[in-house]
Amino acid sequence: MKILYIDPMSYNNLAIYDYNLLSNTECEIYFAGNELYDIELPTGITFFPIFKYSQKKSLFKVFSYIISILKIVKLVKKINPDIIHIQWIRLWIVDFLFLKYLRWKKKNIIYTAHNMLPHNERKNDYQHYYNYYHLLRNIIVHSEKSKEQLVSEFNIKKEYITVIPHGVLDLSQALDKQSVVAIKKELSEKHDLSNKIVFSMLGGLDKYKGSDLVFDVWNESFATNEEVFLFTCGKISDEISANIDLLQNTYTDFNRIDNAMFLAILQLTDVLLLPYRKISQSGVLLSAINEKIPFLVSNAGGLSDALSIANVGWNIGIATKKTLSEQMQSILNNKDELNEKKHSPLWEKLSDYYSWKEIGIKTQRLYEKSC
Questions:
Q1: CATH 3.40.50.2000 residue ranges in the chain?
Q2: Which member of 22, 66, 245, 276 lies 3.0 to 4.6 Å from 300 by CB, making a disulfide possible if both were Cys?
Q3: Taking the model in full, what pTM does it have?
């Protein structure tokens, strides 16, 4: 069985997703990915660095992406795959026309809907994605909530949707571990973290992620508390940055941080803050699960799924300043509970649920069923 696997965003954390998924399937795989992909693939996978748009600017990105899709059209003709598995929509009209072409050619197509809609949804996104989804007969989602959303909001038939969890993300797979140790040592000594409870908010800092709630709650309730410390690191949106007051008792970096810094901070963290307003699944959360870091989440999307499997964090329900502040204060007042969650044997249950081996088996079954 020949699989053409297409991921225009196969770099950084998404490259780790691709590597683990493809390493746990048993097919003849042709991987059309991004030129920035940098993890060595197992034998039997043929890699084509087709997508070269990432480091280009403005309109050059568009032209580059169009050229990449045209190259994939040629690749489809050349290898004649049994299944075409697509990850992500990057340029809607181009991707839509490409999908129409594949349907016209009667190809078997699987699409993984990591998020039902873009995080920063624009005016016409719903209609665009509605049209795209209705060309598909096989859609993978990562949680039951996402499946329910596709059925209720996009009117997709249940039989067209398969739930396959997103596996844990082990960032150390593509890192020099000694550099991570060195960064941890430097940060811990500089900020005297040994006797503090460390909260962190990592990845892109945006309103849909509730980053503004974290900034407000910290300034109002925790900035002068010497028992706690906050890391806020990641590229910040203009909407958030325009309204931030000076933060005390924190380490901030409002630019995109590399994976070594990300992992070092994550390993120093006692509680990861994810008070999202909207999400389907979070790569940051899956990185935390891999490192056994307790997490505070809202009930947005599939964030709280992990807590239904293992009680290793906290669900604040709807993300508001009140629910976030009260739960953070409760954590400070119940340090024994935090310690129990950090060392809970239930982490193994989560590791089994998000096991790449099981995810590979489920994906393989879908490939076989779809042929």
A1: 2-167+355-370, 171-353
A2: 276
A3: 0.88
